[in-house]
Amino acid sequence: MVADELGLTADFQFRVLGLAFGWAELELDYAPTMVRPGGTISGPTLFSLVDLTLFAAVLTTVGLEPMAVTSELAIHFLRPPAPRTMRATAEILRAGRRTVHGDVRVYTVGDETPVCHASGSYAVPDGSRPIELGEPLI
Fold first, then answer.
1. Cα separation of 47 and 58, whole Å?
2. Does the global pTM surpass 0.85?
């Protein structure tokens, strides 16, 4: 669905590490095009990883709903990330009928100190329904 609906460039090679109800973990493979002057991963790259990881967590609560859209996202850069593969985890804090709120943390693979933290929300279109516990996520 991501490749078909979101149109991310070929430079972004995402991998889903895990999904559970209200939770997602993704990795973004390193590519030299992601590095900004100064030798760190760029902010837009981190923002893309954060947004997609939160989207994945949202989908675990509302089902495969491509029209769920980011309505707000605040990202806090905590320290410069090394130019390596990045890992992000998202947790849904509240899933309402029309809005889903969550938190995301991003790490450089191999380092457990977060490089950024984000919180945001997704607007969910009318007619979406939460996945019942026990239903397959994908």
1. 16
2. yes
